[in-house]
């Protein structure tokens, strides 16, 4: 690239029918001044472009970093969501198992109470039957004793026994007859 100094130091050969040397020098001075301004502007623009390119590169790196950060944040958020779902599923499963256990325990307790109830009813029935049998045997025994006593008394001809009030105590057979 031609520099302003190259223009200033450029010398043309002189010829017989050449251009007016003063006009050429004046025009070259004018070109050199304008070229020098353009050259400086070009250098400034190159420097500014270089700074801007560095800044753009810096922004691209920041953009890449932000993109990576966003991707990491999104994947982390997704992992958190998945983990939260897994954890909630585990909690629900544990709660369901615990509820089933409680229900099974309650059912077992109810079954046990029913069995105890049935056993108590069976024992009550046995007791009633035995008590009825006992009462019946006692009544039969008393009837036999009373009949024996009545027979014995009728053979002895003694008056029937009396209670504290002095009333005659009769057997049920004799009461029926007495009444």
TrEMBL record:
It is found in: Cytoplasm. InterPro entries: DivIVA_domain, DivIVA_fam. One of its GO terms (cellular component) is cytoplasm. Residues 151-179 are annotated as: Disordered. Keywords: Cell cycle, Cell division, Coiled coil, Cytoplasm. Its main location: cytoplasm. Residues 162-179 have a biased composition (Basic and acidic residues). GO terms for biological process: cell division. The keyword Transmembrane helix does not apply. Residues 42-69 form a coiled coil. Transmembrane segments: none annotated. NCBIfam families: DivI1A_domain (TIGR03544). Belongs to the DivIVA family. This is Cell division initiation protein. It comes from Tindallia californiensis.
